[in-house]
Design goal:
Structural class of chain A: mainly beta
Distance between the termini of chain B: 41 Å
Shape of chain A: globular
Mean pLDDT of chain B: 93
Oligomer: heterodimer
Low-confidence stretches of chain B: none
Largest interface: A-B, 28 and 23 residues
Strand content of chain B: over 45%
Order of helices and strands of chain A: EEEEEEEEEEE
Distance between the termini of chain A: 31 Å
Helix content of chain A: under 10%
Mean pLDDT of chain A: 92
Strand content of chain A: over 45%
Number of helices of chain B: 0
Largest sheet of chain B: 6 strands, mixed
Helix content of chain B: under 10%
Largest sheet of chain A: 7 strands, mixed
C-alpha cells in the first residue's frame, strides 16, 4: 500500500474543462512534489513545495496551477489543457527537500486530454 | 547540465540469477546523492537503494547492491537471486541542488521463470 494517496486514478477531460488532481500524505513530510511522466519516459519535475511554500517551478505553463493548502495536501489545478498534456501525473513527498530524504511516490493519476 | 545515462533500454534475467544494470552520470558537484527507483506496472515509483557520494562504501539492501565508482561517475545496480516481482522499469537518478532529481531513461527488466 502506498503512503501517498492520489485521486483520481484516471481522468479524462476536454480542453475547455477545469479539473483538479489531489495528493495526500500523513507521514509528516514537509516537502511535496508534482512530476509528469510520459509513456516509457522518466518522470519530469514540475513543482516542489517546501514547508507549504512553492520553492521550485520548472517553467511549467500556467494552465497547471499547484496549491498546497496544508502540509498534508497538494493539489494540481488544470485548465485549458492540450492533448499533449496527457500523461501520468505523479505526486511525491519527502521528510524535507534534500537527498538524504528520499521521495515517496503515489500511484499517479493517468490524465487523458481530448 | 546534469545528465544521467542508462545504456541498456532492456535487460532480461532468469529467475534466481544475478543481473547488473548500468548507470553513468555527469555532475560538477562533490556532494550529492544517487538513487535507483523501480516502477512496476502498478505505476508507483519505489525506492530501491540510495548512495551518498561522500561515502566510499557501496550501499546494499538485501538482494540489491550498488557498485559506486565516484571517479568514473558510475553507479550500477546488482540484483541477486532475481525474483519474478523484480520485473519493472528501473530508473537511476541523481539529485542536484535544490532537490531536483534527474532521472535516466530507464531500463526495462524482464525476469524469466
Amino acid at each position: 500500500d502506498t503512503e501517498v494517496t492520489q485521486t483520481p486514478k484516471h481522468l479524462v477531460m476536454g480542453m475547455t474543462n477545469k479539473k483538479s488532481l489531489k495528493c495526500e500524505q500523513h507521514m509528516g513530510h514537509r516537502a511535496m512534489y508534482w512530476y509528469k511522466q510520459k509513456a516509457k519516459k522518466p518522470p519530469e519535475l514540475m513543482f516542489v513545495y517546501s514547508y507549504e511554500k512553492l520553492s521550485i517551478n520548472e517553467s511549467v505553463p500556467s494552465r497547471f496551477s499547484p496549491e498546497c493548502p496544508n502540509s498534508s495536501l497538494l493539489n494540481l489545478h488544470l485548465h485549458a489543457l492540450q492533448p499533449e498534456d496527457s500523461a501520468l501525473y505523479l505526486c511525491a513527498s519527502s521528510p524535507r527537500d534534500r537527498g538524504n530524504s528520499p521521495l515517496h511516490f503515489g500511484n499517479g493519476t493517468r490524465l487523458t486530454v481530448t | 547540465a546534469q545528465t544521467v545515462t542508462q545504456s541498456q533500454p532492456e535487460m532480461s534475467v532468469q529467475e534466481a540469477e544475478t543481473v547488473t544494470l548500468s548507470c553513468t552520470y555527469d555532475t560538477s558537484e562533490s556532494d550529492y546523492y544517487l538513487f535507483w527507483y523501480k516502477q512496476p506496472p502498478s505505476r508507483q515509483m519505489i525506492l530501491v537503494i540510495r548512495q551518498e557520494a561522500y561515502k566510499q562504501q557501496n550501499a546494499t539492501e538485501n538482494r540489491f547492491s550498488v557498485n559506486f565508482q565516484k571517479a568514473a561517475k558510475s553507479f550500477s545496480l546488482k540484483i541477486s537471486d532475481s525474483q519474478l516481482g523484480d520485473a519493472a522499469m528501473y530508473f537511476c537518478a541523481h539529485e542536484t541542488s535544490g532537490s531536483r532529481l534527474t532521472f535516466g531513461e530507464g531500463t526495462q527488466l524482464t525476469v524469466n521463470p
